[in-house]
């Protein structure tokens, strides 16, 4: 029996398309790995900043001790703006539901209670909610 000539063509098409797909896959993996490394470095820098702020340490002195040169250079190339290593901390509001209505409040003494439209509706005092 004779060999089919078109069978070789089908095989070549299959191999070529698999090689092309593999190349695209490898490129995408490299991009993903680079993005992951950047995210890790950013999180490491943020953690170091938070520790410095919490402990009253100088970030400029500490960064050279705990960050690698590659991480320091990325910190500069990613336009990470650090003003004397101070971050404005935002207080997150806690959520409660009273009589089917959602309210948000500052969980501290004399914390303000807000409604869903951010209107001030009361205060959080002595562990209790006092509505106006």
When the domains are counted, the total is 2
- Summed up, the helix count is 3
Please provide the ordered H/E string of secondary-structure elements: HHHEEEEE
Mean pLDDT, to the nearest integer, reads 83
End-to-end CA span: 95 Å
Cα-based radius of gyration, to the nearest Å: 28 Å
Strand order of the largest sheet: 1-2-3-4-5
What portion of residues is helical? Answer: 40-55%
Question: What does the main sheet amount to?
Answer: 5 strands, antiparallel
Which word captures the global form?
elongated
Low-confidence stretches: 79-88
Strand content: 15-25%
- Structural class per helix/strand content? alpha+beta
For the secondary structure, the number of strands is: 5
Q: Can you put this structure into words, describing what you see?
A:
The chain is α+β, with helices and mostly antiparallel strands. It folds into 2 domains: 7-77; 94-131, no CATH class. Helices cover 52% and strands 18% of the residues. It has 3 helices and 5 strands. It has helices spanning 5-55, 59-66, 69-77; strands at 94-98, 101-105, 111-114, 120-125, 128-131. The protein has a 5-stranded antiparallel sheet, with no helix packed on it. A hairpin with a 2-residue loop joins strand 4 (120-125) and strand 5 (128-131). The chain is elongated. The relative contact order is 0.07.
